[in-house]
Design goal:
It is built from nine helices and 21 strands. It has two domains: 23-300, Glycoside hydrolase/deacetylase (TIM Barrel), CATH 3.20.20; 311-415, Immunoglobulin-like (Sandwich), CATH 2.60.40. Helix 4 links the parallel strand 5 (133-141) and strand 6 (161-165). With 422 residues, the chain is of the alpha/beta class. The longest helix is centred in the middle third of the chain and has 23 residues, at 213-235. Strands 1, 4, 5, 6, 7 and 10 form a six-stranded parallel β-sheet that branches. A five-stranded mixed β-sheet has the order 14-21-20-16-17. It has a four-stranded antiparallel β-sheet with strand order 13-15-19-18, with no helix packed on it.
């Protein structure tokens, strides 16, 4: 069963830096050509995809729970974590350490195999086979609790993990890790990637972009390009990048291979297949305030096989007594759309006392989605980023009124899966 996330206001404020800004607001997805007409099928040499060595870490296929399958039949759920504590206040970016242990135990009991970044890259670029269901664990920023709280759990379970570090947060001061801590973890399952120099917010990127192309490229060189060398001086080879807050564009993606990166990760949820654009890899950001993200990530019930068909699973329909929305929506409730790339819209102009900054949308099979909110026209819109092969799609819209009262609406529509092209 696909687990649906609990209501969370998209417009809520986040903790101060160095936390990621809200990916549901700022995350973008673009897939321009990077190395020719079909960048996602580019072939890299073994040297180019070699990740940092995992010293003293069992790295054989004996860790895999199920047999290896053809590359196109493997799907990977990339998990993204931030901070941990069993005493501090839980936030979206800080989760209970005990909850992390519970999640790792859930993985152990499942038929999913936890893979390393090295194995992930080799699979994506065609030099390795993996099992059908795989998990890749990543952690952003460089919080000290990754070493004190999460690392012992990963070590206990024998799970490899990948640290996306930004270089301005490696002093050991405050809540940051020291290089020595990271070196120890590298000997026991950790590999390293870049998360920029100063962790700029999407608004910082946009502000520099408004100054012109020269200033914007200079910032990309400084934040993304130069950090790779700085990290390599401390931790060895670096070839992966993680967009802070998920913000990325065509200019960044064009520059990444020039710097030596072969893969980059977003904050948009979705299972990764062998055709994934390596510079916009999907990732489930696991929230401290909502276990539904993790549950959706490890749910592989919708099995997209090489023919692009969904097998053995139909998302649950809404309860029969679910009222129709009192405002215009598309697709209309109960309608069948002749496309597998539907656009979902809601016109909230007649909804009284709505706070548009709190509007959020969930879609079955996707969880929370990065919908576009037009506060002037009071509309919400989201287009499926990939073809949908599930026959029944449910949409859940939530918001708050100006006095803080939570509201929600839901409806379902059908997808014509006989459509062969969109």
């Amino acid at each position: 069963m696909v687990m649906l996330l609990s209501q969370t206001a998209v417009g809520q404020m986040f903790d101060p830096p160095p936390l990621d800004p809200d990916p549901l607001i700022e995350g973008t997805r673009t897939t321009p050509s990077v190395t020719g007409e079909d960048s996602t099928q580019s072939t890299l040499s073994a040297q180019e995809i070699t990740a940092p060595s995992l010293q003293n870490f069992a790295h054989s296929t004996q860790r895999f729970k199920t047999p290896l399958v053809a590359r196109e039949k493997t799907r990977v759920a990339v998990l993204g974590y931030h901070n941990f504590s069993d005493t501090k206040t839980v936030t979206r970016m800080l989760m209970r350490t005990s909850e992390l242990r519970t999640q790792m135990e859930s993985i152990r009991k499942s038929d999913c195999s936890v893979i390393s970044m090295q194995e992930f890259l080799e699979w994506r670029f065609g030099t390795r086979l993996l099992p059908e269901k795989c998990i890749l664990i990543t952690l952003d920023d460089g919080w000290r609790a990754v070493y004190t709280d999460a690392y012992p759990i990963f070590k206990e379970y024998g799970y490899p993990f990948h640290l996306f570090l930004y270089t301005d947060y490696l002093s050991g001061a405050g809540d940051s890790m020291t290089p020595e801590m990271i070196h120890e973890m590298q000997k026991n399952g950790a590999s390293i990637g870049s998360h920029s120099a100063s962790h700029p917010y999407p608004s910082d990127w946009k502000k520099e972009q408004n100054k012109g192309e020269e200033a914007y490229v200079a910032m990309i060189d400084r934040e993304i390009g130069a950090t790779r060398g700085k990290l390599e001086e401390k931790f060895g080879a670096i070839n992966t990048y993680c967009y802070p807050g998920g913000y990325n564009d065509a200019t960044m993606q064009k520059k990444l291979p020039e710097y030596g990166y072969v893969a980059a990760f977003t904050v948009l949820p979705g299972k990764v297949d062998s055709a994934e654009n390596p510079l916009t890899i999907d990732r489930y950001m696991v929230l401290g305030t909502d276990s539904g993200v993790f549950e959706a990530a490890i749910d592989f019930s919708v099995a997209e096989v090489s023919e692009g068909l969904a097998t053995g699973y139909t998302p649950g329909a809404l309860p029969r007594n679910t009222p129709r929305p009192t405002f215009p929506v598309t697709p209309q409730p109960g309608a069948t759309v002749p496309t597998t790339l539907p656009t979902i819209t809601a016109n909230l102009s007649n909804v009284p006392d709505i706070d548009m900054g709190t509007v959020s949308m969930r879609v079955s099979g996707f969880g929370y989605v990065p919908q576009k909110v037009n506060k002037t026209e009071r509309t919400v819109q989201w287009t499926a980023p990939c073809r949908i092969y599930m026959p029944l799609i449910s949409v859940y819209l939530s918001w708050k009124t100006t006095d803080g009262t939570p509201q929600r609406a839901a409806w379902s529509f059908y997808v014509d899966r006989t459509v062969t092209a969109d």
